[in-house]
Amino acid sequence: MRRSLLVLAAFIAFAAIYILTSSNKKLDQAIVIPATDETEKAAEIQNAVDGLHGQKKSADELKYERAVDLSLISDDIKSKAEAGDIIAQRIYGSMLEECFTYSVSKKTYKEDLDARGKIAPELRDLYARFGAKVEARCKNFTVNMPIHIKDAYLWYALAAMKKDAQSMAKVLTRMGVEKLDDGSLNEGVDFIIASKDPDAMMELANVMGAHNQSRASALGQFSGSERNEYAWRLAACRLGADCSANAQIVTNFCLYGGAISACTGNGLQEVIRRDVLAPREYEAALNLSTEIINSLPRP
Known about the structure:
Layout: H1 5-22, H2 39-49, H3 59-66, H4 71-82, H5 86-104, H6 109-119, H7 124-138, H8 149-160, H9 165-175, H10 182-195, H11 198-204, H12 216-219, H13 226-239, H14 248-256, H15 268-276, H16 279-295
Helix pairs in contact: 1-8, 1-9, 1-10, 4-5, 5-7, 5-8, 6-7, 8-9, 9-10, 9-11, 11-13, 13-16
């Protein structure tokens, strides 16, 4: 039997306290139906998706996604976040998290990418292009502002306390499921799934892998394996999460995940197919993603 949302609020409050006490003073797209799917499967998926999450992104979310230089929007977003705007709190946390790696390695950032290019010469130009994108977004934003990653987590916690599903998922994944009992963990997961927010589900995928196999009873039936983790990612893509070649998650796969296809203009679904899962595992994860979509609460 589900616990009340009061328990959920307590879970988020615990997350905020944890982050505070451990701190040291980062356009909806069409659902992707693989060409290999039969017409019947496409119809089944569309029927399952009808009525699920379909809200457009806010103006601030679009500004963040499209910004070439984050410093040009940072003052406005931070001001709104400090005034209590939930979406701005999540966005500002995302800005800090996105630029954290660049912030702590500014002096060696290009050298690090050059070193990777020497290991994989065929990708040298691509690494340089992706690195230039990160530097353009983060360089001015991080001038005279060292980033502590737990500052980003604090902004997520503030938004999560106001029941923002994406922030809830970010707190859950950054905080670590080992810090929660089964009841609180299950309540948090249920809340995220009930939101039907594909971007929150993409975040939730981070805790659905084999590393949390022992918590499957709390995380739900679609958890505890690499196949489940990527099934959630595929489901999120098909429900409208940004899985394009320009998505932040694809950039991370290119620069930090060793996925060559992520550096060559492919979206996340193709990256998973080419570089992450073996062919049979990919097909199994794709089929499982349909089960996930079908299992989501209906309006």
